[in-house]
Amino acid sequence: MIKVHDKTFVPFITREDIQKRVGELAEMINEEYAGKKPLLIGILNGSFIFAADLFRGLTIEAEISFIKLVSYKGTTSTGNVVTAIGMEEDLHGRHIIIVEDIIDTGKTLSSFLPEIHHRNPASVKIATFLSKPEALKYDIKADFNAFNIENKFVVGYGLDYDGLGRNLPDLFILSE
Ligand code: XMP
Ligand code: MG
User: Fold this and answer.
1) Residue 50 is part of which domain span?
2) Is ligand 1 within 6 A of the CB of residue 38?
3) Using alpha carbons only, what angle is made at residue 73 by residues 67 and 78, rounded to the nearest 5 degrees?
4) Is 70 exceeded by the pLDDT of residue 169?
């Protein structure tokens, strides 16, 4: 058991299982993207550890870049608008792999993906470390998904509870 701020978390997925599974995803990408020089776009902050391990597993030519998403209330009926900060790369004709830490409701990606498509990439796929299928509310599906998990809060491997816990090499889940 570990304590992060006021909450108690218990071990959930070990570093060994994480490394094995992330290696498998890297292999899938190696096969599918050989000769295509994909550009991975990691979404900060949560994805940085997963993105690093996934990227290290690539043996093909590949590039990586990171962006930060800032959401604010729009004045239109669409509500929240998500804008990317730090996206300087020319995406035109590129094969893009978005790298996320977790797809929860899918809201973040569903508001951000149009911005990517707007830049005319050759293809766009999504790699996520975790998915919470029970929480999904938007039409977002990961192409490369390391683990499906139940609808509970997790920390570790880049994911935080109020800023803490990202440096844990294993994944922990909120204890009841
Ligand atoms: P949506 O709903 O947009 O949410 O898919 C994605 C973002 O929500 C955060 N999130 C979590 N962060 N443990 C975390 O540390 C969790 O269990 C969790 N669930 C959602 C996360 O920032 C993600 O990018
Ligand atoms: Mg977070």
Assistant:
1) 15-149
2) no
3) 95
4) yes
